[in-house]
């Protein structure tokens, strides 16, 4: 049961309501995603000024209520900006992209969320607000481990994406239809130094409740000139230990094969793109 609906106009007021047990909503597309009965006071955060996009020489800072459609139309700089728009453009249909927000796509613990995969590959940082406290900054990779820092009255207010010179990226996704949840997603990021891959990040999504980095694959590829054979070897070596959560859409074995295929493609895509810089 929805016990109350609040529309604060200031961030401080929203944080105070959340500290009292309210539940933040913006696009509200994930409100009933966990199939649990809702018993909460809703706090609509769309009017508190978190729909801004700011660009500096070092980073892209995205407000939590920026929608996927807004992100696509923003024409952000660098390979990072193009990558974010590319990922967002492949998520569901336009009416849903108008509603889905970046903060909500991270905050709701659903395995099919696409943007956390992209943000984790980009080494993004979250800004978390709590009532009566200074904003806290934390790497997304740390934030999604264990108890998330926006639980217990917190709120994701911004996502910051560092702009890295020469960064190359790849992204692959497979679903039955454009509007369906993905069987698996994979993203890769790297730079190139003397023909060798550096700062390699490989991320999987839709196969566990949260996106995660495949550090064993990264370790094999780091500092090497990548070839199709080396990429296949790194991914295949990790395949046996790749954690796949059960899902009624397809078997564990099938989704493992899909995830590994997508990872090989994303890595090769990123390395080829780095060579063109």
Question: Characteristics of this structure?
Answer:
277 residues; alpha+beta; four-stranded antiparallel beta sheet; Enolase-like, domain 1; globular; 34% helix
Low-pLDDT stretches = none
The number of helical runs is 10
Tell me the β content.
25-35%
Q: Number of DSSP strands?
A: 12
Q: Any idea how many domains?
A: 2
Query: Briefly, what CATH class of the largest domain?
Result: Alpha Beta
Q: Any idea what the radius of gyration is?
A: 19 Å
What is the structural class?
Answer: alpha+beta
CATH architecture of the largest domain: 2-Layer Sandwich
- Largest sheet at a glance? 5 strands, antiparallel
Mean pLDDT: 92
Distance between the termini: 54 Å
Question: Could you walk me through the main structural features you see in this protein, from its secondary elements to its overall organization?
Answer:
With 277 residues, the protein is an alpha+beta fold. It has two domains: 2-162, Uridine Diphospho-n-acetylenolpyruvylglucosamine Reductase, domain 3; 168-275, Enolase-like, domain 1 (2-Layer Sandwich), CATH 3.30.390.50. The chain has ten helices and twelve strands. The chain has a five-stranded antiparallel beta sheet with strand order 4-5-8-6-7. Strands 9-10-11-12 form a four-stranded antiparallel beta sheet, sandwiched between helices. Helix 8 (215-221) runs antiparallel to helix 9 (228-239) and helix 9 (228-239) packs antiparallel against helix 10 (252-275).
């Amino acid at each position: 049961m929805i016990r109350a609906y609040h529309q604060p106009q200031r961030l401080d007021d929203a944080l105070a309501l959340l500290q009292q047990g309210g539940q933040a909503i913006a696009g509200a597309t994930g409100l009933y995603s966990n199939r649990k009965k809702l018993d909460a006071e809703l706090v609509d955060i769309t009017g508190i000024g978190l729909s801004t996009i700011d660009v500096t020489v070092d980073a892209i800072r995205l407000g939590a209520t920026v929608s996927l459609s807004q992100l696509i139309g923003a024409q952000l700089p660098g390979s990072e900006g193009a990558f974010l728009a590319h990922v967002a453009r492949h998520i569901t249909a336009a009416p849903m992209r108008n509603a889905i927000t970046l903060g909500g796509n991270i905050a709701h613990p659903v395995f099919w969320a696409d943007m956390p995969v992209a943000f984790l590959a980009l080494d993004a940082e979250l800004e978390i607000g709590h009532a009566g406290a200074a904003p806290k900054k934390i790497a997304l990779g740390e934030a999604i481990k264990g108890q998330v820092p926006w639980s217990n009255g917190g709120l994701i207010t911004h996502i910051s994406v560092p702009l890295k010179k020469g960064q190359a990226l790849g992204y692959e996704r497979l679903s039955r239809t454009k509007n369906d949840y993905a069987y698996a997603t994979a993203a890769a990021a790297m730079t190139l130094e003397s023909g060798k891959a550096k700062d390699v990040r490989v991320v999987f999504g839709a196969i566990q409740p949260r996106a995660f980095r495949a550090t064993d694959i990264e370790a094999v590829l780091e500092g090497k000139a990548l070839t199709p054979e080396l990429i296949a070897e790194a991914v295949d070596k990790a395949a046996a230990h790749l954690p796949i959560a059960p899902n009624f859409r397809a078997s564990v074995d099938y989704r493992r094969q899909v995830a590994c295929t997508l990872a090989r493609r994303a890595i090769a895509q990123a390395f080829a793109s780095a060579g063109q810089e």
